[in-house]
Specification:
single chain, Helicase, Ruva Protein, domain 3, alpha+beta, ten-stranded mixed sheet, 505 residues, FAD/NAD(P)-binding domain, D-Amino Acid Oxidase, Chain A, domain 2
Length: 505
């Protein structure tokens, strides 16, 4: 056991846990975080990868959530211009396309434009699909559309960069470390962990934060041994990745007669991402998997809009994640709230100040920073010397350049490192921002990049990822630090895994 207790121990290495770790570390608190698998290995790497207000949530009168998310879009764009960028969404309309009348869509988009204090993103407009490039792939029945703004984010990189920033500010980040139990004793939490090497450790902390996502209830029941009146509703969201269905950079928001909206989004230059579904997931013991029924649903949804039907032969990959929605008793999964709920449990016992446990239920990737601020506000009475909110406007690692400066940074890297193969500089800047300069520091020629593993991956990048981003396997790198698994064959993946394993010994 460490001699000095941590101020906060966090269970869960998703976007909420890592966001709280970053915020708390920047306030001068000592922080430890344990994640039983890789960072962002669950829900936080299986999202639709959007910073958005949630246009559909206006129908459920979730105005506070939508407003907070809309405001956050631009705050986050400025903090991470390498992994997040603005996108234009085309919502095709015809009387036969969905149950929402045109006036209701216009009203929703008017609110979307005005309740969030939009300053950077362009406003909504109506477009003629017979002359706009975005109409070319669509069926002729679609002659007009509403075009509005939202933002893309590299979701799993967002998690890792929050963890990296937390670590740079003093936090101890421990992936592949499972919490076995946690108990209150002598005015502290005592947390037992097992890591991937089998090493057992015991940590102490003044406050425990349960940010376990889908496992938040399981942690309460089986690790903390504490009952709770609050619960999560496990909802599976599945996506398919297809060959490129259209060549332009706009996205489609497709509405169905069931009231749902499915997105078709340009993905990784050569692909299209289609999703998501909303299906109750019965059991955490069953890993989330995009079912055949969900595939048929998404294919049918897209084929209702595109001239060329989208079939199974077009699919190159699929993924699925579990959303831990707060259980508000909604009749169906699509109607369940996307807002977050924080529950502070302060069992005082013999201690006047208490030994706080904060449980995080629900949340959206767009509002992770605000959730972190709210979490720190909840525990502030226990840490009177803690400083105030600070994360708004502070860049994540690599994001210290202008929100419109991406192309300039790519050009500078391409000039300075002219020997890089085509496209590599752009990918490095997209993933690492200004940290691309650190990855390439001291490299004078292509030979200095080290072994070539395919898809523009070189040893220099893998060395950085192992040292600074907790990469312990090929899977960590090719599916969560990047999405290059889409471009690699089995032999290349095996070589990466062997190299990474050797670096971690």
């Amino acid at each position: 056991m460490a001699d000095k207790p941590y101020d906060i121990f966090i269970i869960g290495g998703g976007v909420n846990g890592c966001g709280i770790a970053r915020d708390a570390s920047g306030r001068g608190l000592s922080v430890a975080l344990a994640e039983m698998h890789d960072l962002a290995s669950g829900t936080s790497s299986a999202s639709t990868k959007l910073f958005h207000g949630g246009l559909r949530y206006l129908e459920y009168f979730e105005f506070r959530l939508v407003r907070e998310a809309l405001v956050e879009r631009e705050v986050l764009l400025k903090a991470m211009p390498h992994i997040s960028w603005a996108m234009r969404f085309v919502l095709p309309y015809s009387r036969a396309s969905g149950r929402r009348p045109a006036w209701l869509i216009r009203l929703g988009l008017f609110l979307y434009d005005h309740i969030g204090g939009r300053k950077i993103l362009p406003a909504t407009k109506t477009i003629d699909l017979t002359i706009d490039v975005s109409g070319a792939p669509l069926k002729d029945i679609f002659r007009r559309a509403f075009e509005y703004s939202d933002c893309w984010v590299e979701d799993s990189r967002l998690v890792v960069l929050n963890a990296r920033d937390a670590a740079l500010r003093g936090a101890r980040i421990m992936p592949h470390t499972k919490v076995i139990n946690a108990r209150r004793q002598d005015g502290l939490w005592h947390i037992e962990t097992h890591d991937s090497t089998g090493t057992k450790s015991i940590f102490s902390a003044k406050c425990l934060i349960n940010a376990g996502g889908p496992w938040v209830e399981d942690i309460l029941k089986h690790k903390v041994n504490q009952p709770s009146k609050d619960s999560v509703r496990l909802v599976r969201g599945s996506h398919i990745i297809t060959r490129q269905l259209f060549a332009h950079e706009k996205c489609y928001a497709l509405q169905g007669k069931d009231g749902r909206i499915v997105f078709a989004i340009p993905y990784e230059q050569d692909f299209t991402l289609i999703g998501t579904t909303d299906i109750d997931h019965a059991d955490l013991a069953t890993p989330p998997r995009c079912s055949d029924a969900e595939i048929d649903y998404l294919l049918g949804f897209a084929s209702n809009y595109f001239k060329t039907p989208v079939g199974r032969d077009d699919i190159v990959a699929r993924f699925s994640g579990i959303r831990p929605l707060y259980n508000d008793g909604a009749g169906n999964a699509s109607a369940a709230t996307r807002d977050y709920v924080l529950r502070l449990d302060d069992v005082a016992g013999d201690d006047v100040a208490g030994v706080p446990l904060l449980n995080i239920f629900g949340g959206k990737i767009t509002t992770h920073r605000k959730l972190a601020e709210a979490a720190l506000a909840e525990i502030a009475p226990f840490f009177p010397k803690m400083s105030g909110d600070w994360t708004a406007g502070v860049a994540l690692p690599g994001g210290d350049f202008a929100v419109d400066g991406f192309e300039q940074l790519v050009a500078e890297i391409e000039i300075q490192y002219a020997f890089l193969p085509a496209g590599v500089a752009r990918r490095l800047v997209r993933a690492y921002g200004t940290d691309a300069r650190h990855i390439l520091a001291g490299i004078k020629s292509a030979d200095d990049l080290g072994d070539d593993f395919g898809a523009g991956i070189y040893a220099a990048e893998l060395d950085w990822a192992v040292k600074h981003e907790w990469v312990a396997s090929a899977e960590d790198f090719i599916w969560r630090r990047t999405r290059l698994g889409l471009r690699l064959n089995a032999d290349e993946i095996a070589r990466i895994d062997q190299y990474v394993q050797g670096k971690n010994q």
